[in-house]
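Tokens for chain A. Residues wanted.
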């Protein structure tokens, strides 16, 4: 017979249980397969002799298949707050919860982090500042809002508002500042051009 941590592979030789599995046969018992770690658990130990070597995945990670040798992070933009106390909360990707609008998952996928006003969530992976002519009164998803003609942001990047130009000034779209009308021309408020 093969000892604990081994199995008989159909030949006369005993084979070591690979990582992600274990065996602990009773004396004289033949074992032809190692027992795989359950979903939601993993083991990197070779020749394991107990189910206790199968550890529950840490927070932010899942093991969706039996016999896992590692746990995978929740996908970008999702998190899993359970810190490895319940294997059933780590046994499929759907255990991961999507982050709310304007938030992205932390590097460890245990929580979501909030982007700031003047920023947007880029591909669920980072907070990026609004570019020139764009703004975000609260964090946005995918892109900042466009500041249209007749308005201005007042700052080059990370603008939090888009403000109408005053009478006697004008702006094209995506402007940081309004431009004063040339002498002999005028405009109403929020004008995209001055009139002669």
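Reply:
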């Amino acid at each position: 017979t093969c000892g604990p941590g081994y199995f008989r592979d159909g030949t006369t030789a005993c084979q070591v249980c690979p990582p992600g599995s274990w065996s602990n046969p009773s004396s004289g018992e033949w074992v032809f397969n190692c027992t795989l770690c359950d979903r939601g658990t993993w083991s990197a130990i070779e020749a394991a002799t107990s189910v206790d070597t199968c550890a529950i995945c840490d927070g932010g990670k899942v093991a969706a298949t039996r016999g896992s040798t590692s746990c995978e992070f929740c996908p970008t933009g999702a998190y899993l707050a359970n810190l490895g106390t319940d294997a059933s909360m780590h046994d499929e990707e759907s255990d991961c919860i999507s982050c709310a609008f304007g938030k992205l998952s932390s590097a460890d996928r245990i929580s979501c982090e909030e982007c700031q006003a003047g920023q947007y969530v880029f591909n669920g992976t980072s907070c990026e500042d609004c570019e020139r002519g764009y703004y975000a009164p609260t964090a946005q998803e995918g892109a900042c809002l466009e500041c249209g003609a007749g308005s201005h942001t007042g700052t080059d990047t990370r603008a939090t508002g888009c403000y109408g130009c005053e009478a006697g000034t004008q702006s094209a779209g995506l402007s940081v500042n309004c431009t004063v009308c040339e002498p002999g021309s005028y405009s109403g408020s929020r004008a995209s051009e001055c009139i002669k």
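The chain has a mean pLDDT of 93. DSSP finds no helices and 21 strands in the chain.
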